[in-house]
Specification:
The protein has 6 helices and 4 strands, in the order αβαβαβαβαα. By secondary structure, the chain is α/β, with parallel strands linked by helices. It has one domain: Rossmann fold (3-Layer(aba) Sandwich), CATH 3.40.50.2300. The two termini are 21 Å apart. The C terminus is likely disordered.
Length: 133
């Protein structure tokens, strides 16, 4: 029997945010991580669970940033792990991460990278993924 290369995991959105915070805490070298949303706080439940996940592993400083001003704070406070909850609005964070050596975690990160790699629109990729699954 062949090994499975695809595993389906079902979870509530909020649970993934807690795990993202935990992973951010594991990976940070500066003990400073950020939750990036649109217009400040995207949803207080998301930001609270991200912070709880980050501090479950160890205490780290968690910054709640608006997507449109995030880069200024990232450089000023030496934040090295970012959770992008701003979707495609935060796609510039991936380019900046690549250039400056910090990590970006988020639900849209893989989709944005694939879009850049294959030069296809987001809707074309979504359609492709639906056909494949």
């Amino acid at each position: 029997m062949k090994e499975q290369s695809l595993v389906q995991i079902n979870f509530i959105d909020y649970e993934a945010v807690f795990v993202a915070g935990y992973i951010a805490s594991l990976e940070t070298q500066t003990n400073r991580v950020a939750f990036v949303g649109i217009n400040g706080v995207t949803d207080s439940n998301y930001t609270t669970l991200f912070e709880k996940g980050a501090n479950y592993y160890r205490y780290v400083e968690v910054y709640n940033l608006d997507v449109y001003s995030a880069l200024d704070y990232i450089f000023e406070y030496d934040i090295d792990v970012i959770y992008n909850m701003a979707g495609e609005n935060g796609s510039y964070l991936i380019d900046a991460a690549e250039e400056n050596g910090y990590y970006v975690i988020g639900e849209q990160v893989l989709r944005i990278i694939l879009t850049k790699l294959f030069n296809k629109s987001n809707s074309e990729l979504q359609l492709c993924c639906i056909r494949c699954s």
